[in-house]
Design goal:
Two copies of one chain form a homodimer. With about 500 residues, chain A is α/β, with parallel strands linked by helices. The first copy, chain A, has two domains: about 1-55 and about 230-405, Serine carboxypeptidase S28, SKS domain (Four Helix Bundle (Hemerythrin (Met), subunit A), Up-down Bundle); about 60-230 and about 405-500, Rossmann fold (3-Layer(aba) Sandwich). Chain A has 19 helices and ten strands. The first copy, chain A, has an eight-stranded mixed β-sheet with strand order 1-2-4-3-5-6-9-10, with helices on both faces. A two-stranded antiparallel sheet of chain A has the order 7-8. Chain A is globular.
Chain lengths: ~500, ~500
């Protein structure tokens, strides 16, 4: 099928050139399992988390000071290791100060440059004034400027230097930083509220669970803390991506589903086309990404995109004149995506001095998220998760052995309803069901104060973004509930403090 | 004063000979700050935690299997380090098994040989049958047979090899062990209840807080989790020890209080007596220890002692004929203590290959417990805690820099009422007010399910000991409440499980 009007080699080559000149980061590694590699689960957005200059101009500019804090490399041993400088952004502009117990809003930095996250987390900046809150954005170790061993080159040298890039160490960094910040400001009694999206949302939830004495609550947005082991079915992610396309149009879904074979047959037609595999991977990444940022209005998260971008992609795929070949339709479709990105710099490669990459290391060590692609519900090539080959590739790339069961030992996940029903408090798990990561997140209330906010039309941590005149009602409502809940945490904290000091 | 009838040099030398031949471990290190060293906080009982053969015969013999489990040396990094074998004792004799969700009673091994703790924690063994519980006693890393680097010699070689002797690593050991044990037995759904006394009680409480998904509750007996930084006044410990003596007799307290100067003047009289300082330290240790095991009936915890041993000591001190000198009285008094110990082997030194010692390492790294001796309320020489000299001695001994604020960053402690009032559940903090460690423990309920059981007449984790015909009513009652609470945890857990599986 679809062999008559296949796009010319020229067109495909052009496509690849566009890909490689505009978004090399997407294609530079196999980033989805279905095609050739079993290794990489889909990425969060952090991969792109270095501010593209053009985009930056369109972002709201928030005012903060940049500071550095000396951290231990291993908080959990007394090995004699060099310390490193953790960068953090701080604004006390609206802070009520220590006497009035002004809150501290603390964003759990995730896998990328913290300035970029600060620029893309408008919600925190916007609500800080009404709470009289200080705002702190600490950078995650091994990302951005927060490099152990003085440089990314050294930090990413090998498994020995990368060994301390773990979530637990990052949480300890945050905790030590908060403690010392508070000490310096005589602000020990000020309540800390955590925020985070994606992996940062996982960190925020885990930190509230592990360091309840440090932070009184956490807004954990789009955080797939259950995407480990067999807690959710491994097909979940790709099924949701696929569902987002099917929801717009069955024929769009079908066209994409049949395109993989066509792409393969292209390869047999022209054996000089070495990049077919990369092309498949890039297409898969593009679909995943489109599902994550399937926002209801035009947004400029990684790149400028129209509102309901999947709808737009499918319109193109479906709308081509009769007789248009499969690949040509696909090409038309994803042009919605890459056409917008022509101006984006090659912003990832220089973060990645040895072909290594922080998130890949994390995925190969702790963040082992099994992913399969189902036969029917998925529009991607069928694929069964294969731990052995995953492990082999991690060994090849990093000389490290993954610990696939560690995260749930350390942070839980299995049977989370029983274990947290009477334990813990003050966590919001917010999710949009269009987001493929929602499938591994907490979508039901676990207790009275560990609550799930689920929106039908939401995508990847849209609630953390700056407000916009185009915000739909459900988003306004979601944010209002979040504000109310955070207010109640702080209010209750003040009440407790008062009750105890009156005793 | 008290210079006329000072004990002869012979008598003092004899005393020292007795000390060194019977209980060298007590005197081999400065173990209390007041005299010469600022370094050592009083020890828990674990110092002695190798089974004295004679005592062992009198202990109930519990049946268990001894097994070994391979553990990572650093759970929180991916450094390429050798694994080690953790020993654990296990009994499934009374276990209901996985289908009936039989509970798992898990004792958090503390700073010593686990067989000794198993022999001295009769409560767990005695109540296991009525719960249909499995019993597991895992050994703490770097103690007993659970040595990294294959031997104590290697493990205790230097700061590099000792680096991984931390409480957090021990908790991770426990958590990984439980997870793998359950997996092997298909017992994932079986509820785990933690037990621990002293440092082990701290571990139990911290583990319930940090790994709520692994264990449903903890009985944390005599666990001074607040004995850090400035959370409780540094005089607390010695004031309580002193109070236990004053309570029996003011003149006893006074005699001890004046004895230190007399001892010092002895030193000036006979400069060949190099051991005066050691003698002071041994006396201090003896008093501390007597306060800890000031049980209401004769017991054989470390050594056979009469009931109310402090009363007996004071009877001797006070009851000597008029004209008896201070040191002679002291000598008569502590004979209650060491006379019982003549048969005890030198059981500590061989645990301590390089003059190093696990607990001293822990005290020099994380477990920094400031201790002062007050001018009036304490019967010990006045002493103000001095962190600088403490730090210096740690550097001299181990080449390690303490982290005095780390424990409260990792586990909390400051303002614990506010932080745990609405967070956490199912912890019993049991304490006897005679125990000097009770001053750094949780003595008030923190919430409905984080409760304090305080007994006026109790001493160091007496509730964990095997029942005895001499148990006073308050102890029977305390244990009955503990059993009831544990029953309620398990009952609630079963209810939750049922409710969720019915959903």
């Amino acid at each position: 099928m679809a062999t008559k009007s296949e796009p010319s080699i020229l067109m495909l080559s052009l496509l690849i050139v566009v890909i490689f000149s505009s978004l090399p980061s997407l294609a530079s590694r196999p980033s989805t399992p279905p095609s050739s590699s079993s290794k990489w689960a889909p990425r969060f957005l952090g991969r792109f988390a270095k501010p593209p200059k053009q985009n930056q101009q369109h972002q709201a500019q928030y005012r903060y000071e940049t500071r550095y804090f000396s951290q231990r490399l291993d908080h959990f041993s007394f090995s004699d290791l060099p310390s490193f400088q953790q960068r953090y952004l701080i604004s006390t502009e609206h802070w009520l100060g220590p006497e009035r117990l002004g809150p501290i809003f603390f964003y759990c930095g995730n896998e990328g440059d913290i300035e970029w996250f600060a620029a893309n987390t408008g919600f925190v900046w916007e609500i800080a004034p009404r709470f009289g809150a200080m705002v702190v954005f600490p950078e995650h170790r091994y990302y951005g400027e927060s490099m152990p061993y003085a440089s990314a080159n050294e930090a990413y040298k090998n498994a020995t230097t990368l060994a301390f890039l773990t979530a637990e160490q990052a949480l300890a960094d945050f905790s030590v930083l908060i403690r010392e910040l508070k000490r310096n400001l005589s602000a020990e009694a000020c309540p800390v509220v955590l925020f985070g999206g994606s992996y940062g949302g996982m960190l925020a939830a885990w930190m509230r669970l592990k360091y309840p004495h440090i932070a009184i609550g956490a807004l954990s947005s789009s955080a797939p803390i259950l995407q480990f082991e067999d807690i959710v079915p491994p097909e979940t992610f790709y099924d949701i991506v696929s569902g987002a396309f099917k929801r717009e149009s069955t024929s769009c879904f079908d066209t994409i589903k049949e395109s993989w074979d066509v792409l393969k047959s292209e390869e047999t037609v022209d054996r000089t086309l070495k990049k077919t595999e990369d092309l498949s991977e890039w297409l898969e990444s593009a679909y995943n990404f489109l599902a994550m940022v399937n926002y209801p209005y035009s947004a400029n998260f990684m790149m400028p995109l129209p509102g309901h971008p999947i709808r737009e992609v499918c319109k193109k795929i479906d709308g081509s004149p009769e007789g248009t070949g499969t690949l040509e339709r696909i090409f038309e479709g994803v042009s919605v995506y890459y056409n917008y990105t022509g101006g984006v710099d090659c912003f990832q490669l220089d973060d990645d001095p040895h072909g290594m990459d922080g998130w890949n290391w994390q995925a190969c060590t702790e963040m082992v998220m099994p992913m399969s692609s189902s036969r029917d519900a998925s529009m991607f090539p069928t694929y069964d998760y294969n731990y052995s080959s995953f492990q082999e590739e991690c060994w090849k790339d990093f000389r490290v052995k993954p610990r696939p069961r560690w995260i749930t030992v350390e942070f839980g996940g299995h049977d989370i309803k029983t274990s947290l029903k009477k334990f813990g408090s003050n966590i919001i798990f917010s999710n949009g069901l269009l987001d493929p990561w929602s499938g591994g997140s907490v979508l039901q209330n676990l207790s009275e104060t560990i609550v799930a906010l689920v929106t039908e039309e939401g995508a990847h941590h849209i609630d953390l973004r700056a407000s916009s005149s185009e915000d739909p009602d459900w988003l306004l409502e979601q944010r209002a509930i979040e504000i109310k809940l955070i207010e109640s945490w702080i209010h209750n904290y003040y009440q407790e403090k008062k009750a105890i000091s009156n005793m």
